[in-house]
Please model this.
Amino acid sequence: MSNILIKLTKREAEGKKLAKLRESGFVPSVVYGGNGEAVATQSEAPATLKVVKEAGKHTPIDVELDGKKHLAIIKAIDLDPVKHTLRHVAFHTINQNEKIVTEVPIELDGIGHSAAERAGLVILQAIEHIEVRALPSKLPEALVISVVGLETDEDKLTLGDIKLPEGVEFADREQNLTLVVGNVYEPSSLQSANEASGGEATAEDAANVASEQGTPTETTESK
Model:
């Protein structure tokens, strides 16, 4: 069982009635999995938001329904694009003895302590999540990769640089391990990218600008 619990009750509200349900302080949800059909459920908004923040879509949780607990994982989270409030959550029951595929975050460790940053360069993360396969008990909170070894704007971090925990593998068995997770850029490339994108530059924007300036930008080859 999990250390995170959410209590659900069966839901009757559907369609247009969901707006009133949300106004009354509840979040509509659905539970998939098991031998039966999907079950329409609901839970109190504050408790649901807390669980979503704690578990995300990578940490197993317990869902309690009709007095019974089921190990589950959050498969989908629907947020209101304007109010940023929870509109709907989809739970999927799982078996603790069977491997599951889910998305986990990638974290860059050591930001601010690399030779590249000490030299005035900037590190940008290109991939923030990746799907992995593992038993529920083996699922990591995140895949961590250190940036400390980065020195020049020709250095990069790839999926192949990530040391997977025991019992964890990439969901795609043919995953391209040269896929870039983090790049090093000259500040001038980022400034130009920010100006071109109205202040919302991404790693891809910076790479494009660097390419125009003559800096190597291959993002599918390892160091």
About this structure: Helices lie at 17-23, 45-55, 115-118, 187-197, 203-212. The chain has a mean pLDDT of 87. The two ends are 42 Å apart (CA to CA).
